[in-house]
Amino acid sequence: MLDRPDLLDLYGHHVEQNVMPMVEDIRAAMRGGGNADVQRQWSRALLRLLNPVQLYIGLSYDALDFFIPSVLRKKHQLELTLPDSR
Q: CB–CB of 14/55 below 8 Å?
């Protein structure tokens, strides 16, 4: 079962320690107004979080989708796709 308390703690820790710092960097770039910096931070996050060798890729994808919603991604021309697992 994926909703066991111990797993939920691991998931929460992953989002808090790995995803949220990147989300904050992306949001800061968005507030700064420079699209080149937004693109750079977004690419950095995707490379780090959605790399096929990383743990919890699906969770990272869902967290990015939640914390940087499609309306913001569209405004800044950011694409969110899962990597090919081949």
A: yes
Q: Which residues contact 57 (CB under 8 A, 6 or more apart)?
A: 49, 50, 51, 82, 83
Query: How buried is residue 80: exposed, middle or buried, by Cβ count under 10 Å (0-12/13-18/19+)?
Result: middle
CA distance 52 to 10: 19
pLDDT single digits (tens) 9-58: 788 889 999 999 999 999 999 999 789 999 999 999 999 999 988 889 99
